[in-house]
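[audit] Reproducing an earlier prediction to check determinism. Same input, same settings, fresh worker. If the tokens differ from the archived copy the diff job will pick it up downstream; this log only records the rerun itself.
[audit] input (894 residues):
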Amino acid sequence: MGQAKSKLKKVSKSKKNEPQTEDKTDEVGFMCGVVEGFYGRPWTAEQRKELFRRMEVMGLNTYLYAPKDDYKHRLFWREKYSDDEAALLQALIEEADTHNVLFVYAISPGLDMVFASPTEIAALKNKLLQVKSLGCKAFALLFDDIDPVLCASDLEEFQSSADAQASITNLMFETLQQPRFIFCPTEYCASMAIPDVSTSIYLKTLGSKLDPNISVMWTGPKVVSHVINVDSIKTLSKVLQRKVVIWDNIHANDYDPKRVFLGPFKVMATKPGRSTHLIQHIAGVMTNPNCEFEANYVAMHTLATWWKSFKPERVEESAAANESTSKPVTSSPTNQSKPLDDNFNHGDYDPDKALYEALIAWLPVFSLAKYPTCKVVPRSGTPPAMPMVPNLPIVSHSPIATVCTTKNVTKPVVSVVCKDNAEGDKLTTNKADCDVQMEENDGKLEEMQTEGEGNKNKLDQMETEEVTVTEANVPMQTDDADSDVSMATANSSAATDVEEMQSSSPDSKEREVTQQNELSKDNPLSVEDITMLAECFYLPYEHGVFGRQMVQRFRWLKDKAVKMSQWKNKKSEDYLDKALEWSEKAMIFEEQCRRVQGVFNKICMCPNRALLYDLFPYLWDLKGVVTMLRSYVKWLGPTSTFGWVGPDPEPWVFRGGLSGEFQRLLPISSAFDLFCQTLPRSPQVSTYIVRPYVPTDEESVFSVCYSTWDDGKRDMEMFENHKQLPADRLTGALLTLSPEYCFVVEDESGICGYLAATLNAKDFWKKYELAYLPEMREKYAKPESEDEMNDAEKMIVDLHSTDDRYGYGSDSLAVTHPAMMTLALTQCAYPNVAKSMTVCLLSALKSHNSSGVHVIIDSNSKYFQDLYTKLGFTEITDSPSSATDGVTIYGRIF
């Protein structure tokens, strides 16, 4: 123990007394490249080799190997690599060198290392020397995301964690004969510095004790920084006594399984930062990008463009002073409605131009015949651990005040008939939002009058919702195994190729890609298509132009629909003008929704299945939410906001990206489980349409009810003469008495499912007795004998019964679950459609102030009990109905 202490302090002392020499960054150049440092399944060896090839073409020069879930990098850092693992690592190092990429091997011993233990020091030495023997020329020690408190034995040897980390880092630096070396501190951003950067004892200790030729990594003001300005870097450099290497998390998505970032390397639209003027003050910039390898083309390409845009001869010292100071992000209308800041000095870098150039270069990649070589983890296919809160808008729009709709609408506010519009396919490439005028008009609207209390109303018809699902050809594999992996498993494609081969032969893969080639030739992707894609999955703190336009239009339509429903004189010229304007905006929004659907279909047909499989979970989420919005323009309810979020939060506060923001605009945003739909096994397109019920659908709905009665398993001969009887018992009544809350789902062959409901079950059953049953009793004559009746005869007897139809309901049920619903799907219907229809219904009910719904289920129907359980329903045990009644009541609060 004492010998280890002496050796460590000797190294630290000798370096402290040496004169400050020129930073070694000048010898090896500015480091610009990629950090594989995210939490999640590491990339495979083949993906890394492709990464090196792309980096060479783009002009990036450094790769840092630091996957958090490679257990020999972090959790079991002491273990040396096996022969197979070492051979694979050596091959990667050689491949990187072939493409002029510096391979930096990083190790993270900070979780449990005893700094004063000779055994621990020897283990770290041996591990790094093994990697050096494989040809590695650069190394990194990472002490991020750890508890900095030292153990008792370390406290006897070192004054602080910074002292211990600097000592062990200096020793490894000397042991490896002073190679290119990088250090990641525990306080790696300004928000973690205690108390702040300029007075942090930890950072000052590193500055004085860490060898001056060792680079220090820094993420900026926060873990995910939207502002990194020159002044803050100058302050940090003085404290650390060296230039820093920026570890940039602007494209990292490991904190939110529903977001992927395809925007350019840039600042937030309303904030400065990341000017090329930074380059002369730092030793490098490395992006820690998306977990999905194929999603990182734009991030890498635009970073390379940013670096190559730097022209030292054109940089003036006054440039940094011209940068705006950082201001916290708030949800205030002033901050969020601010126009894009075009006055910020990016230096010679134009992020919009860089994005366009990156997309031009990325487009051919979609056409490459490429297969996925690893298990695909559908990160967005499983429900999140918590609801996607808070209900805060992300960027560029003012929050709409909570609106409580207490009256229904007597007539449709507008009749929106959406037709294909060629102009809808043209992308707005400038930064000026077309909805600025829309927002300006908000203030000009005169106060609308409310209708009288006595008026009874009906709901408006809603727009169609298309639900695209896929049939299984090549399985999209999921990963249920432990995420901890080693170099031999996660980094090698060999282990996963076997599993892929088991499910899909090379011939079947080739046939699939050939089919996709033929389809994609008929309807190829364009630059405009992937520009829209990038603008929907833009950056952590902002949406792209297309995404912002959709959010603003949807908010505008929602707000105006509520106001117009309260207008008293619906024949006035002012009202008609407003209705026409609303209709025009709705048509534009409809076209945008169609465009999202079209791009989704095109990408699903692209030959590059590896790229598709990386993007598909995010496309699936976005497409699902957007298509729902087409049905909710007139059904949207109030949006809540939460005030507990700080003024300048990290991006993981805003869950779900554009899809999450759309979800928060729906009145049932808290029902997050209904938005987490199971990913299909293979991304091939088949379209379902969820739409409101119309009277001409009655025959088809009755047919579905007939075919699905008793789970579709019973012999239906007893209904041969009464095929409408299963539907007439309940579904027909809902279609007759409450059609505004009924929906159908169609596929290519016609209607394959329905959902029928009523806003108030207690009132419904009264109308059922008075207005519906008399007609049914005339239609179905009561059997003369009630002995040995079949199910059809029992149903007819029930229609003639005078029992209280709401006898199953308690007073509490009428308060907590007043609405009632029933649904049915044929066997050919995709299960996720049930969730889509339920979202439609719950949104409609919520907009009319209902917050609970119940269903009546046959106690013997395991299928429907399981189906409703998956839809978030639970059994209501205080219902007066019992097992002898043969029914069970399930309910859901929303």
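[audit] rerun output stored. Observation attached for the diff report: Residues 293 and 403 are 43 Å apart (CA to CA).
[audit] end
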